[in-house]
């Protein structure tokens, strides 16, 4: 006890502050859908001192995509929490000695090579946890479209080339007909280029299998072709893009 009193007296006299554990919980919501969690490789979350750039913590969101009814169907205000206990999150405990202007950045989803990024800043005070309600919630824009065929850098014979993609929301939720994310509300196209010249632009139609969309392309001339697949939701501006190349010998 005498040692503790002596230590506290020394800290008071010198102005040295004791670090206080401060818990920060971060949820990353995919724009227009649910939380980004384990099924999509999570979102990479970094916490840094916005004034100095010092990295304080980083890691991935883990857990489920959350309660569909609560997130997508219930009427709620911006102050109504939509996260549940199973909703994906990243949790960090920072040992803070002073108030910090904290910047939280999220990138992802990690299954998407061209994942997006969002960030925000807020003052965090030692011992004042950011855990209530939805805690620190970021929203990541973007759709996840992936070119499945032809395989990137594939060599194919002249004739009919099948262009096929998959399309899901950032949380992994399927974009298919007659669902919460109805295919009719999305524009899914593939632009084919040879050099800087556009050879064709195709609307991709649902194949009837899972989240796959496809169209056939007739290619006669040899050369290297580039494909740019784009998914677009006009009502929100949400967009995703993927690219690949193939060669006709």
Strand content: over 45%
Largest sheet: 5 strands, mixed
What is the H/E order?
HEEEHEEEEEEEEEEEEE
Radius of gyration: 24 Å
Task: Using the 3D structure, state the CATH architecture of the largest domain.
Answer: Sandwich
Report the strand count: 16
User: Which ranges are low-confidence, i.e. pLDDT below 50, for 5 or more consecutive residues?
Assistant: 3-15
CATH superfamily of the largest domain: Immunoglobulins
Distance between the termini: 83 Å
CATH topology of the largest domain: Immunoglobulin-like
Count of individual domains: 2
CATH class of the largest domain: Mainly Beta
Tally the helices: 2
> What would you call the shape?
elongated
Looking across the biggest beta sheet, what order are the strands in? 9-16-15-11-12
State the helical fraction. Answer: under 10%
Characterization of this structure:
Strands 9-16-15-11-12 form a five-stranded mixed sheet, with no helix packed on it. A four-stranded antiparallel sheet has the order 3-2-5-6, with no helix packed on it. A four-stranded antiparallel sheet has the order 8-10-14-13, with no helix packed on it. The chain is 8% helix and 48% strand. A hairpin with a 4-residue loop joins strand 15 (223-233) and strand 16 (238-248). The chain has two helices and 16 strands. The chain has helices at 2-14, 68-73, and strands spanning 20-30, 44-49, 55-60, 90-96, 100-108, 116-124, 136-140, 143-149, 154-155, 159-169, 187-194, 197-203, 205-206, 212-219, 223-233, 238-248. The protein folds into two domains: 18-140, Immunoglobulins (Immunoglobulin-like); 143-248, Immunoglobulins (Immunoglobulin-like), CATH 2.60.40.10. The relative contact order is 0.18. The termini are far apart. With 249 residues, it is mostly beta strands. It is elongated and about 70 Å long.
